Each structure stands twice: as structure tokens, then as C-alpha cells.
User: Which sequence fits this backbone?
């Protein structure tokens, strides 16, 4: 855990100048290796063990001998592809809708912002299966909006791949909103004020000053959001159903495999873990460390 | 309606618990059973066992019955992983065999009930479903259980018996998930158990079909060898097998031995 860039990603960043100074300082202390206080080190080690050991358990129990045979089953590739595509789309939708929400929560002076914030975070608290039922009530073919869609265009959202993206976005977007709002609050608003006094309009200021300023926060939020979407189960299986090729994502395949073939479930979980870890590492190398 | 209430309870994050009315619980008196009793039961037994739990507590006021309802396979896994359960009631013989083969059962499991599939449609049957043959119609929105869970395996059996290739939109993780989609009117029909149709009340109608007899699901029950409360466990099994237990099961639509 002595990689300084981890701190850079997961913490809301203050303005860039103090950050650079802090990074130098962090590097020095890491090199000497003596600056981590024991009171932090011990719980950190326990915490890491707590998070990592269950994964070790999966690795130990994995049926390594017939791993390749199981991976070659067409349903595995199908579910994995669907998971990656839907989680990525859900992240894109979350960014398009979530960054503006975060801006409104952090910068605007509209009334009832705290209520708005609480409402936006409802999906975090709601059991995902209930979230799925709630989506039915709005977007199902008998739902508030869905019934209109169905009667006008004969189009029904549930049980489609689009429904998977919707369910994942519903559950995952709050993670992005909260991260980005934190980053916006920590960012120095004086840069934006300066841009405004130099004649930039609100949108230019947002695009050319605010966005670059909070880019690391957005990246961290997007990663959280993507990871949550990738693991989404309850809202998806309720609202989108479970059908191989259209709506069966990896978590659904894992859960059903667990019903009569726990070994297969372990293999599927490991695939999901490996792919998500690889993706996140790759992204970090390519993109986050530059931010 | 009952499911709507259940949903409300979920939303509020309140845990439902079956406490006996204190004015009634005194009647049992002189009972030496006490302590917590943990019953692991198939999700399809939810309503019946909660009712039986209330009745049991009247006879044994010192016993605090708690339930863990879920898919039988998940419960069997939890039991073999050492979950502190006293009783296991499975929705099929194969998951009971998993528990019994692992040496976790105390004695031989007894069949308490049987259940058959029925076609569940939203009230008024808007899509005009008539029989099992409609599950071939790709134009309809249909749900069945995934083949990995017992109700899904039963569905495969009846489709084979009827000689049809189903065209469904969702393979649900358990029977209640399929039923919820019918109750909300989001699917035209689903294959669920007779008991689920009865439990759903007025929002769902059931349609019988002859091939259902090809897939009769038995419900075995057994006290567990590692039961923390073995006396109460035996008492619960006997109670479920008693005339009172049979009557409550029959009322819910189960066939009883």
C-alpha cells in the first residue's frame, strides 16, 4: 500500500499546486519507509487481510484441473461480454447524467439541495431487488412511463439488454455522483471565479477549468461506478430478468451456477475478478496516473 | 396484497419477526422447550411456516422461532458450511440428499408435502393464456425458473412431457421472482407452484394443465444433527407433520401425505 498514486486517486483533490507539493513529500516518506505510524499500519494490515482473504479462499477452492474446459463453455464468454458492455454503458450514462448532478449539488445555490442529495443516494440504501421492482413500476409495460411507451410504440423495456444498462445505472450512478461532488467541494472555486472574471461563460468555465480540476475525482467515481455496475445482481435479475445472451450478466450466471454447481460458480467469479482487476490496472496505467 | 405488505416492510428496512401475542401465549404453560429455534426452509414454504410459527409459539411460548427462507440449494450450502440451523425443509429431494449425504441430518427425512406447477397469469388473463402450449409463443412475455433451481427443473420436465420447446424471456432465480413479474403484470404468464398462485391472492390467477402431474415436487423435512436446540427441532418437525400442520399446508394448496 505504499504506492503514492493510490492516494491521488481515491482522495478528493485540492487544487493542483498543493497536490504536487504533497506528492513530493509522500514520496520521501515512502522511500525511508519509517513514517507510517504503527497506529495506522496495524489496522491497515488487518483491513487488507479482511478484504483479500475471501478472494484467496476462492483461489484455493478453484477447480484448476478443468478450469480451461469450463471457461470454454460458450455461456461464460457470452455472460462476460454482456457484463463488460453493459457495465461500461452504465458508466457512460452515469457520467453524462451524474457529473451535472454533482455540479448542481456542489456549486448551485438552489433550495433543498440536502434533500436532493438524500434522494440521489436512495439507490445506495434500497435493496437492489426492491430497486428492480421500483424500475418496473416506472418503466415496466404497466409502469408510469413504460405503459405510455408500450401503448404508443409497442415497445417494452424489461427483459432487454437496455434494461440491464438501466438497472446497473440506477444502482451505480450514486457512487459517481458522490465521488464527483466530493472532488468539486474540495476543488478551489477561486479558479472558476478567476475564469469568470476573465470573461468565460458558465459552460466554458465548467469545461475548461472545473472538469480538468476534478478529473481525478471523476476517474475515481467512474471506476467505483463501473465496478458496482459489473457486480450488480438484484436490480438486474428483477427488472431485466435472466436470459443467456440478452440479460444474463456474470453475477447472474454465478448465482445460478451456485445453485447446483458451486465449482462452476467459483470459476465464473474468478473470471469476473480477473477481468475487472485487469481492466482497472490497465486503466490506471494508461490514464489515471497521467491525471 | 400480502406481498405488497412484505415489500413495504422491506423498503422500511424493518425485520419482520413472528412474536406471539402475549395474551395468547400463556395457554401453553408447563412446557420445557425454550430458547431460539432456527428453521431453514424453502422459499415456497414462507407463508405456511410463518403461520405455523405463530401456532407453535402458542404451544411453546419459551421458544423463539426464526426462519431463514431461501432457495433450497442455497440453504443446503449454508447448512454444509456450518450454519447454526435446527431444521431443514427442502423443496426437493435432491437438495435434502446433499444435506443427508453430508451426515448433517438427524435421522431420515420425512415427506411433509407435495406441490405441482400451475400457470400463473395476471388477474383477468390479459394475454388469453389457455395452456402449457402458449409457452411456445415467442410473441408473449413469459417467465419460468432457471433450470438450476427446482421449479425450473420441474418446468423442463413438464415441457418435455408436453413435447414443446419453450420461448421464454426470463429464467428466474426462484419461484417468487417469477411470481413477482406476474403480479406486476410485466409478464403474460409464468410457471410457478399452485401454492404460489394461492399466496399471491387476487392479483394472480392460476391455470391447471395435465402435464403438471409429471413433475410432482416433494418437500422433505428433517431435524439437523448439529442442531443447537435439538428438542425444539424434533418438536417442530412433529408439529409440521401433525394434523394441524397438514391442515395449514393443505389450506395453502399443498398436497399432504
Assistant:
Amino acid at each position: 500500500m505504499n504506492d503514492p498514486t493510490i492516494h491521488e486517486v481515491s482522495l478528493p483533490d485540492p487544487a493542483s499546486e498543493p497536490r504536487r507539493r504533497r506528492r513530493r513529500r509522500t514520496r520521501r516518506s515512502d522511500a525511508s519507509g519509517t513514517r507510517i505510524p504503527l497506529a495506522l499500519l496495524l489496522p491497515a494490515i488487518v483491513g487488507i487481510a479482511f478484504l483479500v482473504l475471501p478472494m484467496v479462499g476462492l483461489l484455493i477452492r478453484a477447480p484448476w484441473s478443468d478450469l480451461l474446459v469450463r471457461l470454454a463453455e460458450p455461456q461464460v464468454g457470452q455472460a462476460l461480454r454482456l457484463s463488460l458492455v453493459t457495465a461500461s454503458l452504465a458508466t457512460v450514462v452515469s457520467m453524462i447524467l451524474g457529473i451535472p448532478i454533482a455540479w448542481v449539488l456542489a456549486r448551485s445555490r438552489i433550495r433543498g439541495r440536502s434533500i436532493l442529495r438524500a434522494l440521489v443516494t436512495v439507490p445506495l440504501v434500497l435493496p437492489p431487488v426492491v430497486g428492480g421492482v421500483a424500475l418496473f413500476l416506472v418503466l415496466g409495460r404497466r409502469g408510469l412511463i413504460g405503459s405510455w411507451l408500450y401503448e404508443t410504440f409497442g415497445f417494452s423495456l424489461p427483459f432487454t439488454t437496455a434494461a440491464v444498462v438501466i438497472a446497473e445505472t440506477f444502482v451505480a450512478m450514486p457512487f459517481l455522483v458522490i465521488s464527483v461532488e466530493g472532488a468539486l467541494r474540495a476543488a478551489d472555486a477561486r479558479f472558476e471565479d478567476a475564469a469568470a472574471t476573465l470573461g468565460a461563460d458558465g459552460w466554458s468555465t465548467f469545461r475548461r477549468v472545473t472538469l480538468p480540476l476534478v478529473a481525478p475525482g471523476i476517474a475515481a467515481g467512474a471506476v467505483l461506478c463501473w465496478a458496482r455496475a459489473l457486480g450488480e445482481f438484484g436490480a438486474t435479475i428483477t427488472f431485466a430478468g435472466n436470459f443467456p445472451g440478452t440479460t444474463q450478466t456474470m453475477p447472474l450466471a454465478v448465482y445460478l451456477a451456485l445453485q447446483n454447481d458451486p465449482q462452476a460458480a467459483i470459476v465464473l467469479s474468478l473470471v469476473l475478478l480477473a477481468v475487472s482487476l485487469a481492466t482497472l490496472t490497465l486503466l490506471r496505467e494508461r490514464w489515471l496516473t497521467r491525471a | 396484497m400480502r406481498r405488497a405488505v412484505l415489500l413495504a416492510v422491506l423498503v422500511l428496512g424493518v425485520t419482520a419477526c413472528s412474536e406471539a401475542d402475549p395474551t395468547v401465549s400463556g395457554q401453553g404453560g408447563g412446557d420445557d422447550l425454550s430458547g431460539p429455534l432456527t428453521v431453514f426452509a424453502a422459499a415456497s414454504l414462507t407463508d405456511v411456516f410463518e403461520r405455523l410459527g405463530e401456532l407453535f409459539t402458542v404451544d411453546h411460548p419459551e421458544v423463539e422461532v426464526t426462519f431463514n427462507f431461501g432457495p433450497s440449494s442455497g440453504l443446503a450450502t449454508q447448512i454444509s458450511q456450518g450454519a447454526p440451523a435446527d431444521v431443514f425443509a427442502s423443496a426437493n429431494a435432491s437438495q435434502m440428499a446433499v444435506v443427508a449425504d453430508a451426515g448433517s441430518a438427524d435421522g431420515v427425512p420425512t415427506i411433509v408435502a407435495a406441490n405441482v406447477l400451475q400457470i400463473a397469469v395476471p388477474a383477468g388473463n390479459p394475454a388469453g393464456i389457455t395452456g402449457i402450449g402458449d409457452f411456445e409463443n415467442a410473441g408473449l412475455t413469459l417467465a419460468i425458473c432457471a433450470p438450476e433451481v427446482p421449479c425450473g427443473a420441474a418446468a423442463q420436465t413438464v415441457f418435455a412431457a408436453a413435447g414443446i420447446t419453450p420461448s421464454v424471456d426470463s429464467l428466474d432465480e426462484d419461484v417468487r421472482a417469477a411470481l413477482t413479474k406476474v403480479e406486476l403484470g410485466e409478464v403474460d404468464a409464468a410457471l410457478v407452484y399452485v401454492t404460489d398462485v394461492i399466496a399471491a391472492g387476487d392479483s394472480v390467477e392460476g391455470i391447471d394443465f395435465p402435464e403438471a402431474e409429471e413433475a410432482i415436487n416433494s418437500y422433505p423435512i428433517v431435524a439437523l444433527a448439529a442442531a443447537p436446540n435439538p428438542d425444539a427441532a424434533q418438536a417442530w418437525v412433529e408439529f409440521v407433520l401433525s394434523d394441524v400442520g397438514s391442515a395449514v399446508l393443505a389450506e395453502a394448496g399443498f398436497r399432504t401425505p
In short: Residues 16-61 of chain A form one domain. Chain A touches chain B at residues 125-127, 130, 133, 136-137, 140-142, 156, 158-159, 237-238, 241-244, 247-248, 252, 255-262 (CB under 8 Å).
